[in-house]
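Quick start: what a row looks like.
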Amino acid sequence: MSEAESSAPAGNNDVPAREPLSLLAARVLGCLLEKELSTPDVYPLSLNSLVNACNQKSNRAPVMEASAREVEAAIETLRSHRLASVVSEADARVTKYRHTVTTLYPILDTQYRAILAELLLRGPQTTAELRMRAERMAPLPDMEGTDTMLAALSDTASGSLVRKLPRQAGKKEARWSQLLTGEPDTEETSLGSAREPMKVYLTVPPEITNRLASLEAEVSTLREELKALRAELGA
């Protein structure tokens, strides 16, 4: 049995059914997975780092122009899906975030996370493209082994995380797509050809809008209290 076969995800039967992620929420999750593997020294990520990661032009399809508020709302969506969490660090001045994918899918080792990250960041890709591009995050086995890993991700005990798409006309190889954003549109042209940055228009659920407003109010109150305390100590 190959390494890919022996480490195939067995799944987690406790994973709840959830609504598909938005394109931006998927991008945020992909960035968290990517930075954990490629630049672990700066992981977990601050909000500013996440915005920059979402909007970077390399290794992204489509290129986005998301605002900090939109990314923050996407993080809240991921938290409600149990896919991300806030990192609590003593004396931390900046709030940071990490993914919790392995809590829901504990068998998703480094190689599987690299594949999932690449699909979340660039959309549908062939096995050869995934193997080449994911190398910056984790070394993958040969083509046959990578295909075995993709097949395992498409048939976990908790449901499919990826799906092999019908081969496009004029193309030699079929592509794979992640399913966290829902069923892929097989008629849609690959997003990899997009050249212009995509403006993100995010419809924020009322409960998340209210939560953000409440957090902003609390931060404003704390700032005023801190200002008053400093004035009192300096008097």
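That is the whole record. DSSP finds nine helices and eight strands in the chain. The two ends are 74 Å apart (CA to CA).
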